[in-house]
């Protein structure tokens, strides 16, 4: 059964992946996210490669998101929620996201009712004779029209009964098989289709997917998708076969849906949101009331609900709050709008200011106080309350900073290949001009660096980690200057998300926290010192080896120098004797003279007739045997010519 939870490859599109990635990227950086692949390129396990190409084309604007693999993983976390096609605007595309299994308070498995349509899509596409993107698209359009008609904007859940879905699969197979063996019916359809004009073909398709299909994309689908398909040059018979297949599948789906209407009937299921140790429900969902503020959804804790209200015949569905690294996963509210927790909204808003607009790198320091007061004035949206609450994602906050900037924004530089240090972080803060905006910002570098290093995904700190560190240092500076918002962050249990934040309320609740932070910093500094000490020891050892090699080389050169001096002395004496012989008129050859031969090792004469000698085979020089044996203990060459001496 689980295979029908997986989206068929033919239904996955790069266009959808790009639409899902866009909201995850900071608004100012979205133009840098190039499309993933060509217009007709298929999504076939090559997503990471295509995302990397897009990153490479971004002129460095997407470096904060890490590698292509990390960005893809975060997009998959971010997009994983029911009815996400409505949020991402992929109305005219197949369903893209695997249905998510939820667990009830009774430990039973549930899925969102909207995901029943995803399962039906997967079943039909896998049964199709041709598993094409066109078939998946048409099936999805039909199902989305039914989803809107049957469920509207509500988020409800149904038990994930594998046996029942297996029975539905069998019914689909049987019905598809029966309808595929009606050649007479197809010939009749072909006869009618052959005479259709282009507008008539559009009308046929509109009947196939039902007239209730009221999504904003229907005009695009009719005018763009069908226009391209009808004008592709395919024969009328080929087009008729496709439309006939689509029509048969629509009948099959219509039959299945109406045989299982109970799957789509209203049910008494309510989401219990879980965020760490917090459990809470939307008041408007549990009490079926309209929120007091259109953009705010207040919550009630499980404890308060059980204490003050009846909860009979309600199935509580555990709904964990999920977050990718840079964005929280959206949640659909009872009205059909999408929300995230206020604390997530707050940090995402500040991230837009820090890395998107880069306001604190450009702002005139004289205008900083006024700008921070504008942010502080958002206490009507970010207010102190012990209970979590949701904010609508479409809420627009003040972000116009054109009137207070007076310098160009510098970009975060790349980290070195071997990472970056605390001092590198401090230097980067100065390079970005943040020490001008926040003179105290470097005071947070040590504790922020320690935490970023602890959380890093690779063995070394990378450029994306440097972006995190720069952001965290600014968050500390901002919250220290905005006490109201600092109280808001504490009340929403978000202090841990600002590395090293000195929260008086947290310290009062847990006095050990501050000491633990100091200890963590000291431990990090000690570890850095140990690494530096080890590096110095290795360098000293390397230098010691170099010194030993130089000493040995110097000794060899000294011996060679002494040998050369002996040779020079001998040659000088020989030259002097030769000169004397010439001056005396004695022209006899040196080789015939009766001069005594000298051993160059001991510098003593070799007596005529002495037999305890060794002769060098190269230069014919003779040495005392004893001298030569002692010489060869430390040398290998002849002291006269550097040739090899015989060992005996």
Short description:
The chain has 648 residues and is of the alpha+beta class. The protein has helices spanning 14-21, 47-56, 68-78, 84-88, 114-127, 133-151, 162-180, 183-193, 198-209, 218-230, 236-259, 283-286, 302-308, 342-356, 359-362, 368-376, 422-431, 434-437, 445-455, 463-481, 483-491, 504-509, 512-583, 625-634, and strands at residues 102-104, 109-112, 157-159, 269-275, 278-282, 296-301, 315-320, 331-332, 338-341, 389-392, 597-598, 605-606, 613-615, 622-624. It is elongated and about 130 Å long.
How much of the sequence lies in strands comes to: 5-15%
Cα Rg: 42 Å
| Helix content class | 40-55%
Enumerate the spans where pLDDT stays under 50 for 5 or more consecutive residues: 211-217, 585-593
Number of helices: 24
Oligomer: single chain
Number of domains: 3
Tell me, briefly, the overall form.
elongated
End-to-end distance: 90 Å
Can you give the mean pLDDT? 85
Strand order of the largest sheet: 3-2-1-7-4-5-6-10-9-8
Counted beta strands: 14
Largest sheet: 10 strands, mixed
The structural class is alpha+beta
GO cellular component, one term: membrane raft
GO biological process, one term: innate immune response
InterPro entries: DUF7809, Znf_RING, Znf_RING/FYVE/PHD
Protein name: RING-type domain-containing protein
Task: Describe the protein in words.
This protein is α+β, with helices and mostly antiparallel strands and 648 residues long. The protein has three domains: 2-264, no CATH class; 339-539, no CATH class; 600-648, 2-Layer Sandwich (Herpes Virus-1). Helices cover 50% and strands 8% of the residues. The chain contains 24 helices and 14 strands. It has helices at residues 14-21, 47-56, 68-78, 84-88, 114-127, 133-151, 162-180, 183-193, 198-209, 218-230, 236-259, 283-286, 302-308, 342-356, 359-362, 368-376, 422-431, 434-437, 445-455, 463-481, 483-491, 504-509, 512-583, 625-634, and strands at 102-104, 109-112, 157-159, 269-275, 278-282, 296-301, 315-320, 331-332, 338-341, 389-392, 597-598, 605-606, 613-615, 622-624. Strands 3-2-1-7-4-5-6-10-9-8 form a ten-stranded mixed β-sheet. A two-stranded antiparallel sheet has the order 11-12. It is elongated and about 130 Å long. The termini are far apart.
């Amino acid at each position: 059964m689980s295979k029908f939870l997986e989206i068929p490859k033919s239904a996955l599109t790069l266009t959808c992946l790009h639409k899902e990635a866009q909201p995850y990227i900071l608004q100012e950086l979205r133009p840098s996210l190039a499309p993933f692949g060509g217009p007709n390129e298929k999504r076939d396990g090559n997503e990471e490669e295509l995302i990397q190409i897009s990153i490479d084309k971004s002129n460095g604007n997407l470096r904060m998101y890490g590698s292509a693999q990390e960005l893809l993983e975060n997009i998959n976390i971010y997009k994983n929620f029911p009815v996400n096609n409505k949020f991402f605007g992929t109305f005219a595309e197949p369903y893209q996201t695997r249905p998510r299994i939820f667990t009830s308070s009774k430990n039973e498995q549930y899925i969102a009712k909207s995901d029943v349509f995803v399962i039906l899509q997967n079943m039909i596409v896998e049964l199709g004779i041709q598993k094409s993107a066109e078939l998946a698209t048409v099936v999805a359009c039909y199902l989305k029209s039914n989803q809107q008609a049957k469920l509207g904007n509500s988020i409800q859940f149904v038990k994930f009964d594998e046996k029942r879905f297996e029975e539905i699969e069998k019914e689909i197979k049987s019905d598809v098989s029966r309808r595929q063996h009606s050649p007479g019916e197809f010939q009749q359809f072909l006869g009618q289709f052959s005479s259709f004009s282009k507008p008539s073909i559009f009308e046929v398709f509109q009947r196939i997917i039902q007239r209730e299909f009221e999504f904003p994309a229907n005009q695009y689908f009719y005018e763009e998708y069908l226009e391209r398909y009808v004008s592709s040059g395919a024969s009328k018979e080929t087009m008729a076969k496709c439309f006939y297949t689509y029509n048969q599948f629509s009948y099959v789906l219509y039959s299945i849906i109406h045989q299982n209407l109970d799957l789509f009937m209203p049910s008494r299921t309510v989401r219990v949101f879980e965020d760490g140790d917090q459990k809470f429900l939307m008041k408007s969902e549990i009490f079926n009331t309209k929120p007091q503020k259109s953009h705010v959804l207040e919550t009630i804790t499980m404890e308060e609900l059980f204490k003050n209200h009846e909860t009979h015949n309600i199935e509580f569905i555990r709904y964990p709050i999920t977050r990718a690294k840079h964005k929280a996963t959206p949640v659909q509210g009872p009205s059909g709008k999408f929300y995230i927790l206020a604390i997530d909204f707050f940090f995402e808003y500040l991230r837009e200011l820090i890395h998107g607009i880069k306001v604190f790198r450009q702002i005139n320091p004289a205008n900083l106080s006024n700008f921070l007061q504008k942010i502080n004035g958002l206490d009507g949206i970010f207010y102190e309350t012990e209970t979590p609450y949701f904010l609508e994602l479409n809420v627009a906050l003040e972000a116009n900073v054109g009137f207070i900037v007076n310098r160009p924004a510098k970009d975060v530089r790349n980290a070195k290949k071997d990472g970056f240090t605390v001092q590198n972080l401090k230097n980067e803060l100065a390079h970005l001009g943040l020490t001008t905006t926040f003179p105290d910002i470097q005071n947070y570098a040590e504790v922020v660096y320690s935490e970023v290093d602890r959380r890093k995904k690779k063995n070394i700190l990378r450029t994306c980690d440097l972006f995190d560190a720069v952001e965290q240092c600014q968050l500390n500076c901002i919250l220290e200057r905005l006490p109201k918002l600092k109280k808001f962050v504490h009340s929403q249990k978000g202090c841990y998300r600002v590395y090293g934040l000195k929260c008086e309320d947290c310290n009062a609740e847990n006095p050990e926290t501050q000491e633990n932070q100091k200890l963590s910093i000291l431990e990090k500094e000690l570890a850095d010192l140990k690494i530096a000490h080890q590096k110095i020891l290795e360098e000293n050892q390397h230098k010691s080896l170099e010194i030993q090699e130089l000493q040995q080389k110097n000794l060899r050169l000294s011996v060679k120098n002494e040998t050369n001096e002996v040779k020079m002395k001998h040659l000088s004496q020989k030259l002097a004797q030769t000169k004397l012989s010439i001056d005396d008129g004695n022209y006899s050859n040196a080789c015939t003279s009766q001069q005594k031969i000298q051993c160059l090792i001991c510098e003593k004469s070799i007596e005529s007739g002495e037999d305890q000698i060794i002769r060098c085979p190269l230069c014919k020089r003779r040495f005392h045997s004893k001298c030569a044996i002692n010489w060869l203990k430390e040398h290998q060459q002849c002291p006269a010519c550097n040739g090899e001496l015989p060992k005996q």
